[in-house]
Amino acid sequence: MAQRDLPKGYEPMEVEKKWLKFWNENQSFTPALDPDREPYCIVIPPPNITGTLHMGHALNLTLQDILCRFHRQQGCDVLWVPGTDHAGIATQNVVEKALAAEGRTRQDLGREEFIKRVWQWKEEYGGKILNQISRMGASVDWTRLRFTLDEGLSRAVREVFVQLYEQGLIYQGDYIINWCIRCHTALSDLEVEYSEISGGLYHLRYPLEDGSGHLVVATTRPETMLGDTAVAVNPEDERYRYLIGKFALLPFLNRRLPVIGDEYVDKEFGTGCLKITPAHDPNDFELGRVHGLEIVQVIDDQGRMTAEAGEQFQGLDRQECRTKILNELKKLDLLEGAEDYRHSVGHCYRCSSVIEPYVSRQWFVKTGPLAQKARDAVSRGHTRILPEHWTRTYYEWLDNIRDWCISRQIWWGHRIPAWTCLDCCELIVSREDPSTCPKCQGSQLEQDQDVLDTWFSSALWPFSTLGWPERTRDLEKFYPASVLVTAFDILFFWVARMMMMGVHFMDQVPFRHVYIHALVRDVQGQKMSKSKGNVIDPLVMLDKYGTDAFRFTLTALASMGRDIKMSEDRVEGYRHFINKIWNAARFSLMHLEQAPEKFDSSRVEGLAHKWIMHRMEEIKSQVAEALENYRFNDAAQTMYQFVWHSFCDWYLELIKPELYGDDSRLREKARDNLYQMLSEILILLHPMIPFVTQEIWSRLPGINEQDLSRVPYPQKRPGCDFPEAARDMEFLQQVITAVRGIRSELNIAPGIRLELLIRTEGRDRAFLEKHQDLILGLAGLSGMQAGEDIDPPGGCGAAVVKGCELFVPLRGVVDIQSELARLQKELSKLDKDLNIVGKKLDNPGFLNNAPREVITKEQAKAGRIREEKEKLEALQKRLESIEQD
RNA sequence: AGGCGCGUAGCUCAGGGGGAGAGCACUUGCUUGACGCGCAAGGGGUCAGGAGUUCAAAUCUCCUCGCGCCUACCA
Fold first, then answer.
1. Distance measured from the CA of protein residue A661 to the C1' of nucleotide B33, in angstroms
2. Is the CB of A681 less than 7 A from some atom of nucleic acid strand B?
3. CA of residue A640 to C1' of nucleotide B14, angstroms
4. A396 and A435 in contact (C-beta within 8 Å)?
5. What is the pTM of this model?
6. What are phi and psi of A848, to 5 degrees?
7. Which pLDDT tens digit goes with each residue over A707-720?
8. Is A563 (CB) below 7 Å from strand B?
């Protein structure tokens, strides 16, 4: 028997290895490009090559994989392209750190040599996360693996850059940008993270040029005063209006600072006088432009004071300079005061250094027109964002978007395809590397040193991975993708930008749906982070509990719009479910030596079989509907309940007598149906837990298709709705449960066989008698008698189910008092229920306004409760009278 | 400052106008011919608080309180 091969508990390790290899060799996940099959395509969020799998990836991959596998089952030609992202700054940082350990810098190596080193690093370590994706069971097509810096994607990047430049949507200019002095590059607004720090707010005195006194400005960054080129006050401000047009003198440097009027200045804040440093503050930069102010750069790209800062400060670090300035001002009695002040300061999202606003020549994408189109695509419904409330966030960001700084002063990335002719200063932007200047034919061309923001290439991912700018078959078939699955934290970084680029270059949205899933947090709901030490490593989960248990946990917890609080206990809990499936299969396979010859669903007979069939039909549509609507947790819960509490708890128990019985016809029928149910359960569960289902599947006798991932979703079976069987089954379960309840609550040892008497008539009586064996077996009874004129002996346990009175003679087994107490408890429950229903039915408003069905339902309910109550009360009286004997 | 979301059983959460649900945890009993990662039976909730709409509110509206997040600003 097959069961002999199966260990008692499910052992994931070997199983997972085996099937990963099988799927890979089989190219199970390479689409057939069959024109008759509908395409289904998912855009994978490409992880960084520096990264390792974390909880967010694990959830993200699990959900995408469920969708892919499910749609394969639905007959779609599915494409899920895997890939990684070159992560410019992060990767360069990693390699530079490695170099530093050798005591070298990238400058020592030179650009070309350094990039070679990075490629080497990438070959060696960059694939780590790909293996981890694979271990999660992700059914990606490995034959189409892409990388943002590979040849094809680099071509796409160039094409996009050049086109946008030609369309006037990319420009170069001197602006204030976010500068990281550690990474030594510009960053986009999104790459700056703000966090609150305690600092000071300093009040500085600037003497007035005319000698009539001084004005006082407030600042958190005294060192920037050296770059001040004006002081602003609000023209509405009575206190200072007279100053407008006068000049203040900058201490140390004696620069003449015009006092200008601008409504931007908040009268309430600080002193009401605002020092203006156009070179080192974004708001001041704007004011400077409006008022035509001079830009004086006093901090350089290393965070050191420049010569403009004056001899005594030149060369100092910005922090040192702050201290020194404050000291000097104090000496000169120009520091009027200092207060503690908490304010938020921008930090680099890669290295956490304090960001320096810095004026420099950079490349920008003019986002306005692109953002408008990206917004329209959603508002017109071409792309749907789910859950829907994220739509608003998406709009808000696009409505307030600023131009996107895309140049980075690093080496690892797509080099900007712009050259300057050293002879005539012509700027050349070109798809191919030019050899001569088109204007002066000079051959001394120098390429721009900068590379592009990594997100610039990620923004093209939905079409660049499919072969664009070529018009490939993949592109024809699979663009736009069906869905993008991601967490909200890259909604702006990535999703919005893909929308902008997709709509602009493909004239079509990049994906139909955007499903925004949860963030995985720790048990307390805190973000997982290494510094907090609350990280759960998914790889550890995979090793300890197996991929399926882990995946099922994530799926069961992934309800729409709520974050997941993850703990190891939960994974352990769901491992029990995987093991339960395993054992149900182990049991089933014991009885399934061969496949049914031909399964004819129209000839299903027997209560248990009809019932489970009926349930299965419901489950099939529930699970499909849940997955179509991204209700992953519903799909998981539905299967959990069904497999455990219908299939295992009842169905398997109910059919045991048939499986072990002598009636070979019944036995065969039971086996056939069991085979059918088990195999459909495996198919339904497969998208969520691919490995264990595939392993069991492969052990089913006589299967044609070894690869479960290619087996279609079970069709709706005509003629298999058996609502009557469902009702009957419920009745049977209630009877059995009632007897078990009496036994259990009165502490009757399971070894003691009880009798059951049932006062009932008509169909119910016939039904119960027909299934007498099942009742005896499952309720632990030695005998049963049903009839209209049942006259129970004194001293019975009792219950009422659907109007039938159940009696369990207890004389000599248990004392009557316990049963009386038990009955009293039942009765008070009934009283409570009756009270609620009664109130409704006594309310004329209810009777006049409620829909007829609701009223009938309530009336029926009241009748049922009343009947049950009467019967139990009668019994209670009898017991009491016996007790008095 | 603006926006979004969440307060339901001890914990984690489903549900979303007409009988308070699940999983885990808990209690009790159990070598029941797959499973103790198991079986059976239980206990446990003024659905944050208040007001309103309604015959009927956990569910819809408003307010209050508490928690979380996002965006922008912060001299």
1. 12
2. no
3. 14
4. no
5. 0.93
6. -80, -30
7. 999 999 999 888 88
8. yes
